[in-house]
Amino acid sequence: MRLTLAAAGTEGDVLPFLALAHALQGAGHAVRVATHPAFQDAVTSRGLGFAPLPGDPRGALASRASEIAAVRPWKPVAHATTIRVGMAELLGAATPDDHRAACADAEAVLFTLPTAYAGTVAHELGLPAIGLSATPFHRTRAFAHPVLAGGARLGPLLAPLTYPPSQKLLGEPLAEPLRRRARRAAGLPVAAWPWRAAPAWPPVPVLHTYSPALAPRPADWPAQLRVTGHLPSPAAEGGLAAEVEAFLDAGPPPVYVGFGSMPDPDPAATAELVVAAARAAGRRVILGSGWSGIGAGTGAADDVLVVDHVPHDLLFPRTAGVVHHGGSGTTVAGLRAGRPTAVAPFVFDQAFWGRCVHRAGAGPAPLPRRRLTAIRLARVLRQLGEDRVRAAADALGARMRQEAGPATATAAVDELLAAGGR
């Protein structure tokens, strides 16, 4: 079939889905990926079709550096406002006509939550549609809402109560409707009891592309919600840069510290913090500068290497541990390599993934980025070297490497398309 796969956001929001697109093409489908122009080369170099969705994820995040740095979990309205405004800046450039053009001639549409309008276009055109999500957003008793309550420790009675207000604040596109008229139109019970998940919602199947070893599928989810296993980012071609190889060979395995696409209002101070913490813990460190350019002005040193961009799949297996923001893609890369992991969440679902890592024993409890100091980071780096943490990370990595996420998701897509997308 001719498929359009729409994905938008940062590298971690887009690149893993190229693994699925490539697997679908290998299964005989003709796949067009609709995403930002920044990812066009990554798409076309894998023999996939490309359709542009306007938007500048790097610029949108950079423009909200101060707001993201100031996020507080106990202020959900401010947290939700930061996310909604940021997403509007990121995705607002893509018009309905852009999505319609991306879906032109398609026989089915796969879409991520930031591109949910592609699902609406599929409905307009009468095409089968399948949702894709790297984070669980559907109401459950198993855990609280991953974004606005991702760090909360709530039991099965209280966890479901976090979903209706969180979904309303965030305007989640696949959230159950709260208004009576909308619920009647969707064939749902009028009363949206927080502890009851309606089996008729969401209206399309959703494949969750994360590891069940890290976050098992909730038993109370409706049947159309599946967990297929993680989608690793495309493997890097070639090897590590010569300077990285030389640094790795010059001493014991370093720790990697990097915050990826997250904006930082004071990159120089962050670099100083990381270097001071690493030295206090007696660790060599590779510092990923990320989109904020952290450490760009840091001088050369025997125990510190600053890198602009480095393939995680090649570097992480050779480190003593990784510290990062908790993006789903980076979390997968570190754990799949069997490396002890520490998460310093900024915003979005990052605290949720940090809690999952800690619950698995593969790292310490998440330490919010706003609370990160040299003393606290040094303590975290020492914890990454504990035998029990290293053993848990190694075991979790072995389980995750056994998963065949792209193949499992491809089989699920084929099954759903054969059933008309239901």
Would you kindly provide a written description of the structure presented here, covering whatever features stand out?
There is one protein chain. This protein is α/β, with parallel strands linked by helices. It folds into 2 domains: 2-234 and 404-418, Rossmann fold, CATH 3.40.50; 242-401, Glycogen Phosphorylase B (Rossmann fold, 3-Layer(aba) Sandwich). Helix content is 39%, strand content 12%. The protein has 17 helices and 12 strands. The protein has a 7-stranded parallel sheet with strand order 3-2-1-4-5-6-7, sandwiched between helices. It has a 5-stranded parallel sheet with strand order 10-9-8-11-12, sandwiched between helices. Helix 7 links the parallel strand 4 (108-112) and strand 5. Helix 1 (11-26) crosses helix 17, helix 11 crosses helix 15 and helix 13 crosses helix 16. The protein is globular, with a radius of gyration of 21 Å. The protein starts with a strand and ends with a helix. The model has no long low-confidence stretch (mean pLDDT 87). Residues 4-124 form the Glycosyltransferase family 28 N-terminal domain. InterPro entries: EryCIII-like_C, Glycosyltransferase_28, GlycoTrans_28_N, UDP_glucos_trans. Pfam families: EryCIII-like_C, Glyco_transf_28.
